[in-house]
Amino acid sequence: MEGRYCCKEVVPFTAMVAIECTNVGVSVLFKAATEKGLSYYVFIVYSFVVSTLALLLLLPFVRSRGLPPLKMSLIFRIFLLGVIGFAALLSGYKGLKYTSPTISSALSNLIPAFTFILAVFFRMEKVALRSRSTQAKILGTAVSISGALIVVLYKGNTILSASYQQQSPAADSQLGSSSQSNWVLGGSLLAIEYLLTPIWYIIQASIMKQYPAEVIVVFLYNLCGSIISAPVCILLEANSSAWKINPDITLITIIYAGVLCTGLSSLVHTWGLHLKGPLYVSIFKPLSIVIAATLSIIFLGEALYQGTVIGAVILSFGFYAVIWGKAKEEELSVDFGEGRTQTPSTPLLQSYDVTDNTKIMYNNC
């Protein structure tokens, strides 16, 4: 019984926390590598290629017995997943170039709100306005978007910065006026990334329902990402010398991102989607704010601004309001399944039977 609980609850929780730390780490490394001259077009292509090669080594060890054939409709959806993933990375890393890992982590809390909006738009979610769970999700969505607007539009005074990065008030004012437009542009690009992310989750969840083989699906996703990103990024980055990677932090960043972020992170997220559902994967996003702020100050010498802190706090409140609504909804669903009460709405993005998937995943534990 304890072993089953460990497989169903402890292992997914630990894996998601570890992946959040990994994703923040690649943001910090990327920011440092761009200061050394790494082009983010080059970074995206090479990280997809490294991830594809790493997963290729795992394919001989994957059990393919009992899996359905790869139909054209399924391959098309995986290719679409590659297009969305590439577009999200393109927006995200360009936004990160203009802002900071802390801003990126703060705005990632928009994912549950965007997930709820998309679920309503595509009629995957029934809106019962008298239901407390629906009210919590609507309120949480509005609060999350308000917090995001504060993060993007209001920079504010410096709260904390590395001592060697502190500047005079006149210089700080001059930099603030010249970088405000980039700050807004970067935040907007990050918001686009986190709008595309739940779409990626929804399509990935539908793929896993039809073809429950995480390694194969993520390998094909990265292969499609490599095929899509290579010609586009070569056209956008015409400087041939930019494609030459030196054995320094740029090489470390690409290998780290390819193996741990684009590869392992996608694999763990796919496994989490298969096991727990789309919203569970996004629950751990607020944890990354603290990690990103700490690493950015220590390793990048970046300042922590008032607008970032205020917006992140508001975003977190909105985030957990959506999560509370989801938890309340699932509680009603369980009660309904046991014949005690009836839920007024369907669970958010539960387009497949998570219980059955859990049994399949952990029969070998």
Automatic annotation (TrEMBL):
Give the record's membrane topology. Answer: Multi-pass membrane protein
GO molecular function, a single term: transmembrane transporter activity
* A GO cellular component entry from the record: membrane
Q: Which residues form the EamA domain?
A: 27-152, 200-322
| First-listed, main subcellular location of the protein, grouped into a coarse class | membrane
InterPro entries given in the database record: EamA_dom (IPR000620), EmrE-like (IPR037185), WAT1-related (IPR030184)
Name of one Pfam family that matches: EamA
Q: Where is the chain membrane-spanning? A: 38-62, 74-93, 105-124, 136-154, 183-203, 215-237, 249-267, 279-298, 304-323
* Annotated keywords: Membrane, Transmembrane, Transmembrane helix
Q: Which SUPFAM superfamilies match?
A: Multidrug resistance efflux transporter EmrE
Q: Which domain of life is it from?
A: Eukaryota
Its localization reads: Membrane
Membership in a protein family: Belongs to the drug/metabolite transporter (DMT) superfamily. Plant drug/metabolite exporter (P-DME) (TC 2.A.7.4) family.
Name the UniProt record assigns to this protein: WAT1-related protein
